[in-house]
Write a structure and sequence with these properties.
Length: about 290
């Protein structure tokens, strides 16, 4: 059995038998990562257009043939890269050795589970994510793939935050939400509202207003915009020391009603502050 280890989430590394693989060509390396991001395989025409912006000609086909040979040689066997029905595809043992494949496998497994088992799978998936897809490499197809995989990562973070919130496990809930907004501050103003509300109750109002002020700076400097009225109202309520959970009528009579509970989903949160969050660091927007 061939022993491969491929890292793509935060780096770009390929190992075979615990040794770094040298492809002797950036083009060969990029083809491998391109096919890794398309486990179903891609036609030669698609590959040529996406990677090289070329149409098939004798010279281009020869260049492709040389680089496919380099991939097979680097991986140690001809069967690691296959061509079936006009599509180029990596062998299952190569695909399964990548952190990218493992991430999506864990996420898909989580969808079939519930409770703590679901949460554990999602946490396992997040541990694999050490940064952007193929960090440090450039290419138009990479940017598109990077965005696609980042959206999947953000979706997992948001679900993890919600699931922890439902069990009143505040610190990991806030941390997951923070990481999502740090990764993509454009995620949505409602999520910044949620983080403000969570910080106000789980830590203190000063942390919540500190995030609000950084969010104002982000809006002004990056998109030349102003916050929505309900965000301003939420901030003023927090400054006045009013409660922030919309599911607690006694504490939030004057708060603007958010679209959804900032502490969870399905109206299921009955939040109680949990000690131990006083050391939580201030949350930067970016």
């Amino acid at each position: 059995m061939h022993e491969f280890h491929i890292l793509t989430l935060g780096t770009a590394q390929v190992q075979h038998l615990q040794q770094d693989v040298s492809f002797h060509s950036e083009s060969a390396r990029d083809i491998l990562f391109y096919l890794l991001s398309h486990p179903e395989g891609r036609s030669k025409g698609d590959l040529l257009r996406d990677l090289w912006e070329e149409e098939a000609t004798p010279a281009v086909n020869n260049r492709l043939r040389v680089n496919l040979h380099r991939i097979r040689s680097a991986l140690g066997a001809t069967g690691t890269l296959r061509e079936q029905q006009g599509r180029l595809q990596l062998a299952p043992e190569v695909l399964q050795s990548s952190d990218l494949h493992q991430f999506y496998t864990l996420v898909n497994e989580a969808q079939l589970l519930g409770g703590q088992a679901r949460l554990d799978r999602l946490h396992e998936a997040l541990k694999l994510c050490q940064g952007p897809f193929l960090a440090g490499l450039q290419g138009s197809w990479m940017e598109e793939a990077r965005e696609q995989h980042q959206q999947a990562y953000l979706k997992v973070l948001m679900e993890v935050s919600d699931l922890h919130c439902l069990t009143r496990d505040c610190l990991p809930s806030v941390n997951a939400l923070h990481q999502a907004l740090k990764t993509d501050p454009f995620l949505g103003e409602n999520h910044h509202q949620r983080l403000m509300a969570c910080l106000a109750v789980a830590q203190d109002r000063y942390a919540a207003i500190a995030h609000y002020r950084r969010f104002l700076h982000f809006l002004k400097q990056d998109i030349e915009d102003t916050p929505m009225l309900e965000t301003v109202q939420l901030a003023e309520s927090i400054k006045a020391g009013q409660g922030c959970c919309p599911r607690d009528p006694a504490a939030s009579a004057t708060l603007p009603p958010p679209v959804s509970c900032p502490f969870g989903f399905q109206n299921g949160c009955q939040f109680q502050a949990v000690p131990g969050l006083e050391h939580l660091q201030e949350i930067p927007v970016n």
